[in-house]
Amino acid sequence: MTTQPPSPVADVPPPAGGPPRDPGPGPRAAAALVFGASAAVLVVEIVALRLLAPYLGLTLETSTMVIGIALTAIALGSWLGGRVADQVDPRPLIAPALGVSGVVVALTPLLLRTTAQWSPALLLLVASATLLVPGALLSAVTPFVTKLRLTTLAETGTVVGRLSGVGTLGAIVGTVLTGFVLVSRLPVSTILIGLGTLLVLAAALAGRWARRSRRAVAAALATVVAGALATGFAPGGCDAETRYHCARVVADPDRATGRTLILDGLRHSYVDTEDPTHLEFAYVRAIASVVDTAFPEGEPLTAHHIGGGGLTLPRYLAAVRPGTRSLVSEIDAGVVRADRELLGLGPAAGSGIDVRVEDGRLGLRRLEADSHDLVVGDAFGGVSVPWHLTTSQALGDVRRVLDADGLYVANLIDHGALAFARAEVATLAATFPHVALVGRAADIGLDPTASTVGGNLVVVASRRPIDVPAVQRALDARGVGWRIATGAALTAWTGNARVLTDDHAPVDQLLQPGRTPTAR
Fold first, then answer.
1. Cα–Cα distances in Å, from 155 out to 25, 31, 34, 152, 329?
2. pLDDT in tens, 223-237
């Protein structure tokens, strides 16, 4: 008779004489918990980017920071959750993990917007906490549930593999659902408050509830409701949350028909709904001065606009050059909707203006060669820049679209050392034979005794010579107060700035945002 070795797959029996042990969640409940928790982590990560964009910009650094914090939370929660699950019974921990996460998620819009308004120095700390806490707690759910489902070592691979796959699937669904459905249909505050409510309700269903637990759930739901109500009064609210921006329209107290479109806290466009020839911003008057100088007065143009905003320039061209055809590539359908609903873009105001919701570079590619008199670039913001519109390849498309006498005019925004602006001018100089830069004298190197101020600059490029004296006279006539630099002066100002290419365009690192988030 031979003795069999102890089976490595024997189940642990329940304690003798005690009540039957709670078997924990069944296979479907376990899968639902892991799927939902994993999806929630990715929803919070993506929506956090939207919440922070008005204050930090939608830059590579912001995206990297949010992704890094989210991954840290996932790693921390998975590691600690596994260790805790091996030391104590994880059954009573699942509900608190879901409930606390729900409360923090629901309060996130209120916390971030209030902090940004009243204590911006603490914004990164608060943002990190609102990502780390729910991310770690929700990530701990998977090892908790795995421990409960792992009743025999013979099924280790099956249980761990299945729940890992379910968690990954949940993360994919959360990502796709948020990016393609939720953000385009709901304000980010509504998404987070709704998710927080679902997590608290899931906590209520996650275990057997004693009276104390029921009171805890009721308190959590009351906190979520109070947070939802307070979020409506938090600073930084939007008239509309679009797919890309928090948008507001503010009336001008000094001009009854004046309206300012504010995107992510920056004054993006000013529109006079009754007088499209009124140009409020200096950079818009500078662009108008260049265009008016380059083409005969009143002559209709074929123009392409990369970036629409409030459509100030297309409206201006339609008014002063009747018959002008302006094709506008605006990536944000919500901004176009704001133009129509809040900024008075009707059939009369929009005569000759065709707005397409599309990426600016893709829009350029669809245009025929030598087909346009004018291309206007106005898609660069003060805290973030769509880098793929800055490269020599993108500007090569601009040159291809313009006819022999065509003109490219672009609004640049930079501060500090103006490294991005210098690089973009260098890239244009490598693409076009004639380039000029319009801005404050100190900013464009024409007043070496003054320090740079930064802000808006207007760059001009063409295959034909630019009439510098005529542009300067037009700037003076409009009271812009800017100068124009070209030739050796501009070459000296550009220095050894790099040419931006599709292969290497570190725009986020070159760009230095301004200190005030309200100037564009």
1. 16, 16, 18, 6, 56
2. 776 666 666 555 555
